[in-house]
Amino acid sequence: MPKKPKNIVIARSTRLYLSDFGAQYAPQLQKWLHDPQVYGHLRDLSQTLTLEDQLYWIQLANKDPTLKVYSIYYIPDDRLIGYGGFKNINAEEQIAEIWRIIGEPEYQGRGLGTELYWLLCDHGFRELGFQNILAEHFSNNPASWETAMKCGAKRMGTRREARWLNGQWLDVHYTDILPEELVRPPLKK
User: Which CATH number does the domain housing residue 24 bear?
Assistant: First the structure.
């Protein structure tokens, strides 16, 4: 029997729930941002980000109307395993861009990224009123692309050599999804 969550549950799926994102998460965020297995395909790890940098970013993020950040918990353990949400929110146009990170390596490869993509999109459509959700996928992270496609996202195109990361140019693939296209994928055991 799963534990009762100790946090406010904003949205939930079978194995995950979204909660608020506050200053208490800065040390965990800093750890993930410097882990090559977590962030090596997303940012140049030669730049050190301090705990103060993380605290400042969290404060800014929680005040920014174009950004919605959630902490991600794994229900069976009630453990913080990542974070994600929406950026570039345009309330008038009802559009946003999704992003998400499973930061704890032992929770990767278990289908949680797909479940998280679905959970965020479902929340974005039903509770935040989005009509279209965009996603970027760097060519060095095919799992990101596969996750979106499993949930019903459609390919928009590729911007070639659009991201310089760790000494190489990467293509950036784009997908988007509408409310009626969202499919809840089967759970990976």
Answer: 3.40.630.30
Based on the structure, what is the number of domains in the chain? 1
Q: Within a domain: residue 52? A: yes
Which tokens in the block code for residue 89?
Answer: 């929110």
pLDDT tens-place string over residues 130-180 = 999 999 998 988 989 999 999 999 999 999 999 888 788 999 999 999 999
Residue 134, helix vs strand vs coil: strand
For the chain, list the strands marked E by DSSP: 11-12, 16-19, 68-74, 79-90, 95-102, 132-138, 154-165, 168-177
107, part of any domain: yes
Residue 27: count of CB within 10 angstroms of its CB: 12
pLDDT tens track for 125-138? 999 999 999 999 98
Q: Which of 57, 64, 84 lies closest to 73, judged by CA?
A: 84
Domain membership of residue 1 (yes or no) is no
For residue 186, give both structure tokens.
């089967």
Domain that holds residue 112: 11-181
pTM above 0.85, yes or no: yes
Highest-confidence range of 30-44, 62-76, 162-176, by mean pLDDT? Answer: 62-76
